[in-house]
Amino acid sequence: MTANGNTISVYSISPSTSAATLAAWNSGALSYGNRTLGGTTLLPLDTATLTTLGGVGARTGQIWDPSNNMPRKISSTLGAEHKYDNGLVLGVRGEYTVFQNQQYFVDVNLGQRNADGTLATGAHYDNGYPTNVNLFTTASASRPGYAIIRGRRVDFTGFGDVYLSENNGTGSYKALTFTAARTSDTGFGFQSSVTFSQERDMNSNERITNGGISVTTNPADPGANLAPGDSDVKFRGVFTGYFPVIYGIQGALTFQYQSGLPYSAFATSNVNGDNLTNDYAPGYGGRNAYRQPAQKYFDLAFKRSWNITRTFQIEGGVQVFNVFNWANQTTSQTTAIGAAPANTPIASFGYIDTLDRNPREVQFSLRLKF
After folding, report:
1. What is the spatial distance between Cα 92 and Cα 100, in angstroms, rounded to a whole number?
2. pTM assigned to the model
3. Please, what's the largest Cα pairwise distance for the chain?
4. Which of these, 125, 173, 244, 299, is most buried using a 10 Å CB contact count?
5. Is the separation of the CB atoms in 224 and 201 below 8 Å?
6. In percent, how much of the chain has pLDDT > 90?
7. Rg of the chain, C-alpha, whole Å
8. For residue range 252-309, what is the model confidence (pLDDT) as tens digits?
9. Whole-angstrom Cα distance, residue 212 to residue 193?
10. What whole-number distance in Å separates Cα of residue 353 and Cα of residue 296?
11. Residue 175 pLDDT class (50, 70, 90 cuts)
12. Does residue 329 sit in helix, strand or coil?
């Protein structure tokens, strides 16, 4: 389905074992014989044929706008460092990053409702819905059946949910880092850093692997989801020390501490009526209003080398990870309220129930150098 050759959409039809659906695939409009010309050329499906393939709302579509730009990141960093006569080096560094053209998906074939729940007559997507009221309906008779995208009308006759890929999401990252380091000929030394940072975006699905929601939870106002990003760490500290022990043994320790990642309170039911259960729980602060517990790690390492000959050396070592066997725990209980209409608060919301599964480990090593 195209609109002036500028907007391209693809569609999918949910599989079914009904006689009508099977007939459509085996001998009807979707069969090999009717979808190809000469067995090699794929034929398009016209709107009239699409409307015969099941009930309205059974088909979903997805649209990509060729005018979308690729996501990009613009960063700037400014820092200063000073080295003292005793070997101490102190530094400070500031960073500011802007994320542009971040992708998200918005359903552009929803019937929009007013704040009082009544249907907004004639409402349709026109580079956004008429109001920022996050209330919708997926009733077939209430769907507009078309949308205006960059000034062009795209018809969705016979379709249910149609998702538009938008690339106008924004985000930012700000950080201030203090560093200190020192080395000496005696084998003592350290490196350390403390970072205060803030990350905000409309969604984080493109830049992280631990989550993110690609379909906006507010089709009426995607920008309303601007909040701390899914990877936002307010504070992070790292200290690494080096020191001699005895008999040529060199030791090292590393301590890391960081504040917890944010998470959102979700609702079990479809709160805004868009047929998705990805809504934030009303009254719980919106996106990423809560924080997981802080994380901390302490590791130790020792090594010693023996010169057997001028060209042959043996190096032995032992590493202890998570020396104190700290249990860095998080919660997977992010559902805050139950199904509508009761919307009963979930008692287990926020309960700590997940370990990072990184217990104390001891590793021995032996290296031959020649």
Report:
1. 27
2. 0.78
3. 89
4. 125
5. no
6. 54
7. 29
8. 999 999 999 999 999 998 899 998 888 899 999 999 999 999 999 999 999 999 988 8
9. 29
10. 17
11. very high
12. strand
